[in-house]
């Protein structure tokens, strides 16, 4: 019943609906809180986004162990993310964007082995980013569903059936590359990412995030994160969109980041990073100054040059000159091409003089004039002194 003008609270009678598999009331005008007795055992997809739901999430979904999609985005839900979330062993898509949730991100999230998309952006979450966060990948997911297939148990048939018909529910909206895209059906199963932007998260970015090598999107912008960018991020080989802007990150940018070959949207703007920007090669050749702006201590292309403001790093680079940097021209190649073009010019002049008698005469006349005038010039000066 999505995209209607339904008003009022979710009726308490919903608590008696035992075999509900999909609940889709998104984009209505539903208010009030989720009844605490609500908790359909077999439910698979819940889409309640874009309503006016308020109150806190308590134990409503804790017994729904088949839940795959929980999309409660764009409501006014408050309170903590319940600890009992670790009971939702099938949960793949957790979308709680744009609510008033507070407290810490519970470590219980790490127990969810099927999770592939976490969007907790635009809330009031505080504390550290749990270092144990782990997302699954489409390959692992497919393996797992094959395993369920081989041991059919009453009930799991439904789960399989509805996992394959994800498109029955609303599409899930997820922001990547600065745009909100909607994902549904099979496409959703290939999407993997974490969006914790616009919260009050503190502490350092756990280096373990760099081991989530299959994620496509990571957005930690608009928080209060400190410390450095972990060099393990060079292992995020599938990442397409990486946003760490508007934090308080410091230290150097790991130069290994240039190894991220799928990166198309990247921002480190408005932090306190220092040192040199990564070499402008591969994907990094496409990023302009806006992804580094607001870091006054940062230098190198496409920002201000490092030599003018901070000479010490240039001196340090002296001993390593033997190692050729990908960003610069190979000096051997440069000299060879210089000599080759010099010889080419000489030969062209000779050929032209050989073919055209008029120019030949003009050329010899001109060189003779030059020779004579410079001869007398030198003789004049020598005789004066
Ligand atoms: C939603 O309901 C409130 C009152 O319950 C009303 O003021 C508001 O106009 C409604 N919004 C829409 C989009 O229908
Ligand atoms: C990261 O999140 C912020 C706020 O939610 C959003 O404005 C920005 O576009 C996102 N970045 C990317 C690269 O999608
Ligand atoms: C994430 O989970 C997978 C499978 O459950 C495991 O192989 C992998 O080592 C875990 N990664 C991290 C960083 O914990
Ligand atoms: C990237 O991952 C590989 C294998 O998991 C590991 O050996 C290597 O140390 C990692 N690199 C970084 C910079 O963490
Ligand atoms: C950033 O972190 C430094 C310490 O690392 C602290 O002194 C400063 O107040 C922080 N700035 C903001 C805006 O949080
Ligand atoms: C930025 O980092 C430098 C050290 O790298 C520190 O001295 C300075 O206080 C930091 N500025 C802010 C605003 O945190």
From TrEMBL:
It holds the Pfam family LRR_1. The keyword tRNA processing does not apply. One of its GO terms (cellular component) is membrane. InterPro entries: Leu-rich_rpt (IPR001611), LRR_dom_sf (IPR032675), RLP_Defense_Trigger (IPR051502). It is found in: Membrane. SUPFAM superfamilies: L domain-like (SSF52058). Keywords: Glycoprotein, Leucine-rich repeat, Membrane, Receptor, Repeat, Transmembrane, Transmembrane helix. It is a single-pass membrane protein. The keyword Transmembrane applies. The chain crosses the membrane at residues 333-355, 362-379. PROSITE patterns: LRR (PS51450). Belongs to the RLP family. This is Uncharacterized protein. It comes from Rubroshorea leprosula. The lineage of its organism: Eukaryota, Viridiplantae, Streptophyta, Embryophyta, Tracheophyta.
């Amino acid at each position: 019943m999505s995209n209607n003008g339904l008003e009022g609270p979710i009726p308490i009678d919903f608590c008696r609906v035992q075999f509900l598999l999909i609940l889709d009331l998104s984009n209505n005008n539903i208010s009030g809180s989720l009844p605490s007795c609500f908790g359909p055992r077999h439910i698979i997809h819940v889409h309640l986004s874009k309503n006016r739901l308020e109150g806190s999430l308590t134990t409503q979904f804790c017994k729904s162990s088949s839940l795959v999609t929980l999309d409660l985005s764009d409501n006014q839900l408050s309170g903590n993310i319940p600890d009992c979330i670790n009971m939702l062993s099938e949960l793949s898509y957790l979308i709680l964007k744009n609510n008033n949730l507070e407290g810490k991100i519970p470590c219980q999230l790490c127990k969810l082995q099927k999770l592939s998309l976490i969007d907790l952006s635009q809330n009031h979450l505080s504390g550290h980013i749990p270092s144990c966060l782990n997302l699954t990948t489409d390959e692992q997911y497919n393996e797992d569903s094959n395993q369920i297939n081989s041991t059919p148990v009453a009930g799991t048939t439904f789960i399989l059936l509805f996992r394959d018909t994800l498109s029955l529910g609303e599409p899930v909206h997820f922001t990547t590359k600065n745009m909100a895209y909607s994902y549904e059906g099979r496409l959703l199963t290939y999407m993997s990412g974490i969006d914790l932007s616009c919260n009050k998260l503190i502490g350092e970015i756990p280096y373990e995030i760099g081991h989530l090598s299959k994620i496509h999107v990571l957005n930690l912008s608009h928080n209060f994160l400190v410390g450095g960018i972990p060099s393990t991020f060079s292992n995020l080989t599938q990442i397409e969109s990486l946003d760490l802007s508007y934090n308080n990150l410091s230290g150097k940018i790991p130069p290994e980041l240039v190894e991220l070959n799928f990166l198309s949207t990247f921002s480190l703007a408005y932090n306190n990073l220092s040192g040199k920007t990564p070499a402008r090669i591969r994907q990094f050749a496409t990023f302009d100054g806006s992804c580094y702006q607001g870091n006054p201590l940062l230098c190198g292309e496409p920002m201000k040059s490092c030599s003018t403001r901070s000479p010490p790093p240039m001196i340090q680079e002296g001993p390593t000159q033997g190692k050729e940097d990908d960003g610069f021209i190979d000096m051997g190649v440069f000299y060879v091409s210089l000599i080759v073009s010099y010889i080419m010019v000489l030969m062209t002049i000779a050929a032209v003089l050989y073919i055209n008698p008029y120019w030949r005469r003009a050329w010899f006349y001109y060189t003779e004039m030059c020779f004579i005038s410079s001869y007398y010039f030198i003789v004049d000066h020598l005789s004066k002194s």
